[in-house]
Design a protein that fits this description.
The structure is a homodimer. Chain A is an alpha/beta fold. Chain A is built from 18 helices and 16 strands. Chain A has 2 domains: 35-85 and 130-253, Rossmann fold, CATH 3.40.50; 97-129 and 256-449, Rossmann fold, CATH 3.40.50.1100. The first copy, chain A, has helices spanning 40-43, 59-62, 68-75, 86-94, 105-111, 132-144, 158-170, 180-185, 187-195, 209-217, 225-238, 253-273, 288-302, 320-323, 366-373, 384-398, 404-423, 441-451; strands spanning 35-37, 49-50, 55-56, 81-83, 101-103, 116-121, 149-154, 173-179, 199-203, 244-246, 279-283, 309-315, 325-330, 339-344, 378-382, 428-433. Chains A and B meet through α4, α7, α9, β9 and α12 of A and α4, α7, α9, β9 and α12 of B.
């Protein structure tokens, strides 16, 4: 399946962008969608529980953790659309939105499929992934609501990079707890956060009570996202002035809502091309990139306006949807967060060191979980080796080196496209290229070495 | 001068792109300029000399090294415009051209300058720099002219990455000699080349006669671009079947001509905005990014249609224009290339290990050299620490982490913008962001550590 040889004769190629409609030659803030889509207002969302009382959390329960507006948005099940503040839209424009929609002609050609494959290019963000969409929003609201310092966790480093840039942009300090194995394996990610001005600590760290307790038990523990979340939340709630708040990179509903900027843009782009996708595909870790990409189209499907099928792709090594249980669980390892009804592998799940660090989370956004439970979306899991095979195939056909996370979506797309080939059906498949892999070359290198790829020799 | 704090309140921002003129929503191959500009037809170019005869080289002299079309283009002093083959234009479209022109509002705001700063985004190429513009052209011509295998050198790895992708695209094998210090310091760059299917050897290597001789003298020698060029050329000319040719990443006239796609697009974009720049700034190593960016506008200046000033920025550690001599010299360390009339530090120059590996070349494109000698362009050199200060300032204001090479241009721009501030002149400054720095984080890390930046703490 891997593209080893050289197959491209002089293929015809086109990049499909979205451009302003009125013949202007410049892309400005006016081209950025004006609202996020809040799917909870249409289909609801399971209550979040306070583990002390096992009753639904109140805004007061969440306010030591998140800023006021983030809390409101997390609990909002009534407003279908939320206005995006102008300064957030300006930051979106500054940092590369509207992102292009591109057709993968060469991948199609290589697969010999009649399917048409399109991908949304979240990789063009300056921090390399979709994460900036929520980082900008959360940081702006924190600034407006009086926060001076944010804390967060990061796995692969994409969320931490995005939040570092956003905090610098809006003038907040930032402390990042980076999963220790990533901290050690990805020094460049750390340097990027520091270049933007973020402070980065390996987690478990001696900076928090929970970190100290974990280190006391196992000084060489490599950490998980769950551990890093506990540390970041503990640091936020421990600041009695209320000026330190926690910002979260995925899983939460308000994060998924901020990410719907992707799907809103996408629908406008698809309308312009007069296309309704047969399949939409994205990878899932905590669920925010899948949600942001798919929720606006899922709304259309639920209203009978589209018959698109949705596919969430996860690692076999962290199979929360395909092998997890739907139940209430903590969002972190230290059990200091509220409880979410979600597909979970258990809050003490410690995944193997897969290279797609952004997908190493034990749980799944509650609404994505519900949609999967109700068979409105599908899910599939693939092992890491197949993911890198898909990644290298994409790099060699389309030229872009995809993030290991995004390569899960690519693997799902390749299998759908080959199925379309078998059936000789001209299906339209759209996927989210959630990020590039330029900071993940260790994973590529391991894969290429182990394959004993004849094209590679040193 | 470095931006440590947080200065952006909610600034207004716009991204300036070039869009199709007819209101279409898609960017296709039709939007790619149809011709390269060959400045040698307007202002001539010093003869290249055969070192054996000290007479001008003939096409026959060069044909063991380059494919037929590359030789013709290198020696062409008559055709002002050269048609870009459709398949090359298709590949340009496939890999992200037309590139955006973007305004650096936040950098302007941070500097408090009345100057307007624009930058051309060559960083959006999938291989991260402008290098793909010539890689695609050379690889296509080699394929058409019957080559089956290319050899080349790479310093920072940007040229090698671009040529690896281009060779995979057009179906040629590729051998890359990577300067050994870079090979060791930049394993990720090597993995990128291998992901695209290139074979990579550290230079000096035991693969060539010259490499063996250098290793025999000094087994731990870290190599230079000059050494790597000798190895790549030796491997090409040693293949008596004629199926192996050498491809060059900079310095040569045909490379500079291919890069004029940048300047041609730029002029269209500036026309659309109704702007004539007061200053155009680019970094210089071998000269190809400066040439491609500036030559089309230099033509206008020479014809009295613009009074733009041009600034080439180089490292103080490798000051070929500002401290070199204008004379005939070899293009490589092993003295197997022809001789070029150029500003040179001597073909045996061994630069210190600056992080801007793409600028560590002893010579300069002959036409760029002539333009500097005739005071049509200016040049300035800055030391590495000031370059990284400018780089971090740009990252913190515009969000994009620039390549160390491109950061030379940024430093030049900052100084011009501060001068405009002193004089209170609303000048327009345009620079070429020739690449991103995501694979150069070691340089950033060293800089941040040595600065003892209070915002950085681990």
């Amino acid at each position: 399946m891997l593209l080893d040889g050289h197959i491209f004769k002089y293929a015809y190629s086109i990049i499909v962008y979205m451009f302003p409609k009125d013949g202007r030659m410049t892309l400005t803030v006016d081209d950025i969608p004006k609202q996020w889509y809040n799917i909870a207002a249409d289909i609801g969302s399971p209550d979040i529980l306070n583990p002390g009382t096992m009753k639904p959390v109140t805004a007061a329960d969440l306010s030591p953790v998140f800023c006021k507006t983030s809390v409101e948005q997390e609990l909002d099940k009534t407003h279908r659309f939320i206005d995006i503040p102008d300064v957030v839209r300006e930051a979106y424009a500054q940092f590369g939105r509207v992102t292009p929609l591109q057709r993968a002609y060469h991948l199609e050609q290589y697969l010999g499929t009649p399917a048409k494959i399109y991908f949304k290019r979240e990789d063009v963000s300056p921090t390399g992934s979709h994460k900036l969409n929520s980082a900008i929003a959360q940081t702006y609201y924190n600034k407006r609501d009086g926060s001076e310092h944010l804390t967060t966790e990061t796995g692969a480093g994409q969320w931490g990079s995005a939040l570092s840039l956003a905090c610098n942009y809006f003038g907040l300090d930032l402390t990042v707890f980076m999963v220790k194995v990533s901290f050690e394996q990805k020094p460049f990610r750390r340097s990027i956060m520091e270049t933007y001005g973020g402070k980065v600590y390996p987690s478990p760290s001696p900076m928090t009570r929970y970190g100290k307790s974990v280190l006391a038990e196992n000084p060489t523990y490599g950490g998980t996202l769950g551990t890093a979340i506990t540390e970041a939340v503990e640091m936020a709630v421990s600041d009695t002035t209320g000026k330190t708040k926690y910002a979260i990179g995925s899983v939460a509903n308000h994060v998924c809502m901020h990410q719907t900027i992707i799907g809103q843009e996408l629908i406008a782009q698809l309308n312009e091309l007069d296309i309704v996708p047969d399949h939409m595909v994205a990878c899932v870790g905590g669920g925010s990139n899948f949600a942001g990409f798919a929720f606006p189209m899922i709304e259309k499907k639920l209203k009978g306006k589209a018959d698109t099928e949705f596919l969430a792709v996860e690692p076999s090594e962290v199979p929360s949807l395909t092998k997890g249980e739907l139940r209430y669980d903590f969002g972190d390892s230290g059990c200091i967060t509220p409880m979410f009804k979600m597909y979970t592998l258990g809050h003490d799940f410690s995944p193997s060191a897969v290279h797609a660090g952004g997908l190493r989370y034990h749980g799944m956004n509650p609404i994505v979980s519900e949609l999967y439970h109700n068979k409105i979306i599908n899910a599939v899991a693939y092992p890491e080796e197949q993911i890198f095979e898909a990644a290298v195939t994409f790099a060699r056909t389309e030229g872009i080196i995809p993030a290991p996370e995004s390569s899960h979506a690519i693997k799902g797309v390749i299998d759908l496209a080959l199925e379309a080939k078998k059936k000789n059906e001209e299906q339209v498949i759209v996927f989210n290229l959630s990020g590039h892999g330029l900071l993940d070359m260790v994973g590529y290198e391991n894969y290429l070495r182990n394959r004993k790829n004849p094209a590679v020799q040193i």
